[in-house]
Design brief:
three-stranded antiparallel sheet; two-stranded antiparallel ribbon
Length: 392
């Protein structure tokens, strides 16, 4: 039987986020969750399961399509308040009262934010205090210069980050419609669900191999079960190029390691890609053709179960499903299941409207006159594709 929990998370977990000492600009998550609980006492769910926010744009689409005929299970006031809290907390929901951080449900990569000047001044002040016994601290001008150089380099990386984001989001769309992956994930979950509920965390990839180094993670040598669990997850992650799960619904892909791998990552990531070492003597690389070199390596060494993804051979209505559309498929599949969970037993008779809602939410086009349903046909096509893939 699930542990009795408060409305938004069990009390013990929420205490981790409840404190009177919150830095400026941060949200006191525990207090805000408790306020929501008091404000909406009729909202109840099992806090041992992830609870995701319905984004504001999706709520607006629901209101436009359903109006006053919206299923009674959906409380717009609560959903809006909960989505607002998640937005302020930079998360997509909560699990055991802890915020869930996941970036691949957005349309694009989260951009780098410039560092505020008043924060630079505060850093200089703190460095001055800390350095009184160690010599003169760097000047505020020096700090600004270094930060400016860093921000310029970050800006140059931004375009590449978006391309990487789109590709990995597409990979998640392919992954979550791959029946082999789904079956293996479900088997992993069946085997370790009880232990994970006890630990309140799904293991990540970057965990140590040996029992000696496991001790630094709080695992006793005698705890054979936990060591076996870590090894099971490590093998699964390496097979599917993942660094972990945000929740069972949301696998987290491994991205490129830029600028380079750390030593303790080599063994963990060796089976998921290839290394390309560049000596300083080749610092001028414009004529080296690095992209073809890397592509050739990946094409020849990619494992068989990933070849369908590598070749981008999936088609819908005889047209290739590229990364962008597979990324949309990933978002559609997640938010379809989320709306189903909110609507509950009222799904019958509402499928067409929910498809219209998601069409508006995922389409860049705005809804126009009556009869104009942006994105509806694409949603229906993608849902049919998902069903056929998972049925096979």
């Amino acid at each position: 039987m699930a542990k009795k929990a408060t409305q938004l998370g069990d009390q013990e977990a929420m205490q981790l986020f409840t404190t009177d000492k919150v830095p400026p600009g941060f949200v006191n998550v525990g207090n805000e969750l408790q306020k929501l609980e008091q404000r909406f006492p009729h909202i109840n769910w099992d806090a041992t399961k992830p609870y995701y926010a319905v984004p504001a744009a999706l709520l607006q689409a629901l209101d436009r399509v359903f109006g006053k005929k919206c299923p009674p299970n959906i409380s717009f006031d609560f959903e809006a308040a909960f989505a607002d809290l998640c937005k302020k907390s930079n998360c997509i929901g909560f699990w055991f009262g802890q915020p869930l951080i996941f970036e691949y449900l957005g349309e694009s990569v989260i951009p780098f934010e410039p560092i505020p000047h008043d924060l630079i001044a505060e850093w200089h002040k703190q460095n001055t205090i800390a350095s009184e016994k160690e010599g003169p601290p760097p000047s505020e001008e020096s700090l600004r210069s270094k930060i400016g150089t860093t921000e310029q380099a970050m800006g140059e990386v931004e375009i590449r980050r978006q391309a990487i984001f789109s590709r990995l989001q597409g990979y998640l769309g392919w992954l979550m419609t791959n029946k082999t992956f789904i079956d293996e994930r479900d088997e992993l979950r069946r085997k370790w669900e009880n232990r994970i509920m006890k630990d309140r965390a799904i293991p990540t990839l970057l965990i140590p191999h040996s029992s000696e180094s496991l001790e630094s993670f709080g695992v006793k040598k005698a705890d054979v079960t936990q060591s076996e669990m870590y090894e099971s997850f490590r093998t699964f992650y390496q097979r599917w190029c993942l660094q972990g799960f945000c929740t069972w619904d949301l696998p987290v892909p491994v991205g490129p390691q830029i600028p380079a791998l750390l030593k303790n990552q080599w063994d963990q990531l060796a089976q998921m890609g290839n290394y390309l070492f560049l000596p300083h003597s080749l610092i001028v690389i414009g004529e080296m053709g690095l992209e073809p070199m890397a592509k050739s390596l990946l094409e020849h060494l990619a494992p068989g179960h990933l070849q369908e993804w590598r070749r981008q051979s999936l088609k819908l209505k005889r047209k290739p499903l590229g990364s962008a559309r597979l990324g949309r498929l990933f978002r559609l599949n997640f938010y379809w299941e989320l709306l189903k969970s909110r609507v509950g037993g009222n799904l019958k008779g509402n499928i067409g409207r929910l498809e219209e809602v998601l069409g508006q939410f995922l389409s860049p086009k705005k809804p126009g006159p009556e009869g104009n349903r942006p994105g509806l046909e694409d949603v229906q096509d993608l849902r049919g594709f998902i069903k056929s893939r998972l049925a096979g």
